[in-house]
Amino acid sequence: MSNEIIAVLGAGSWGTALANVAAENGHDVRLWSHRASQVAEINETHLNTKYLGDNPLNEGIVGFSDMQSAVENADIVLSVVPTKATREVAQQLVTVLANIDHSVILMAATKGLEPGTYKRVSEMLTEEVPAKYLKGLGVISGPSHAEGVIKHDPTLVSAASKDVVAAEKVQAAFSNQVFRVYTNTDVIGAEIGGALKNVIAIGAGALASLGYDANAKAALFTRGLAEISRLGQAFGANPITFMGLSGVGDLFATATSVHSRNFRAGVQLGEGKKLSDVIEDMGMVIEGISTTKVAHELAQKKHIEMPITSAVYRVLYDNVDVKEAIQTLMGRPVSQEGK
Ligand SMILES: NC(=O)C1=CN([C@@H]2O[C@H](COP(=O)(O)OP(=O)(O)OC[C@H]3O[C@@H](n4cnc5c(N)ncnc54)[C@H](OP(=O)(O)O)[C@@H]3O)[C@@H](O)[C@H]2O)C=CC1
Ligand SMILES: O=C(CO)COP(=O)(O)O
């Protein structure tokens, strides 16, 4: 394995965990954060306490406040900020790449859709970053809680890109005995699966808060995946992708785990907590809250049946009680499976 220079933009839980994987593989890893205090903590104590508690970070990770120093000579750049910060950070990256006249493989590990435009993260990056600065563009997706990755739980993800060489480079750079990267060319499927599973995970948390067991969970996962797949296919995704890591895999990991911010948000909403309090108390991005609105609007616009997404939307945005939302779902006209 060759030694790569890898810049990670965003030092939240996922950016830091991915930086740690790359540093453990012996790469030169630069972790950029917009907060100087966090950079100091990473460099001085090899910890990121706000996001990863007392889990020690590999000492090969160097924190940077200056994006240009982080990106200089980088082979691979990972964008791991929340969806809502993606364009802003991409614009800063473009300024840097123009200054140093450099091109990179750019991968997003963000899972969301842009409000208003309905764009996927890779679409935002394509719009923001001129092709002359790109040696390949793609996404990293799959069932991968930062809390598990940092503790070396065996984890599988996919690196999806139309550029197979770029995806293989990312695969080689990040794979090891506990972190295994598959390549995939279906970027649309990987992104729709990664973004939409968060909506179903909120629903799963709400179900859990009511004490419902395996039947209800299986119903939610199965029909949730059916509507994710319907939306994905409307955008040209390969339906097989939803049977893979960034589909059913990530849905399972997120909708069953207390590590998931989306699942936990669903539990709290089900317990009657106000949405604004749920967001404030989490202190980390809960992507599914915004994605639910985007997906609900998209479903209406494109006439795609997404009843579970609509139910989660009504709980989040219309203050509908979880039990009432479930009753509405169960009271829909009976139908044929496979449609
Ligand atoms: N956590 C996980 O296990 C996984 C997360 N993801 C996805 O990765 C993305 C990031 O998630 P995660 O790391 O968990 O999020 P966190 O909330 O843990 O961290 C977000 C990071 O982005 C920084 N940030 C926010 N806005 C900006 C901005 N405008 N400019 C620069 N930096 C900014 C935050 O800084 P500050 O501290 O100042 O707020 C923080 O360092 C999400 O889309 C998520 O869905 C995907 C797989 C796993
Ligand atoms: O995407 C994730 C795991 O694959 C993380 O999910 P949460 O954002 O819900 O924590």
What can you tell me about this protein's structure?
By secondary structure, the chain is of the alpha/beta class. It folds into 2 domains: 5-185, 3-Layer(aba) Sandwich (Rossmann fold), CATH 3.40.50; 188-330, N-(1-d-carboxylethyl)-l-norvaline Dehydrogenase, domain 2, CATH 1.10.1040. It has helices at residues 13-24, 36-45, 49-52, 67-71, 86-100, 121-128, 146-149, 164-174, 187-209, 214-234, 245-255, 261-270, 275-282, 287-302, 307-317, 322-330, and strands spanning 5-9, 28-32, 61-64, 76-79, 104-108, 134-141, 155-161, 179-184. An 8-stranded mixed beta sheet has the order 3-2-1-4-5-6-7-8, with helices on both faces. Helix 5 (86-100) runs parallel beside helix 6. Bound molecules: NADPH dihydro-nicotinamide-adenine-dinucleotide phosphate (NDP) and 1,3-dihydroxyacetonephosphate. The site of NADPH dihydro-nicotinamide-adenine-dinucleotide phosphate (NDP) has 27 residues, from helix 1 and helix 5. It is an enzyme of class 1 (oxidoreductase). Residues 186-327 form the Glycerol-3-phosphate dehydrogenase NAD-dependent C-terminal domain.
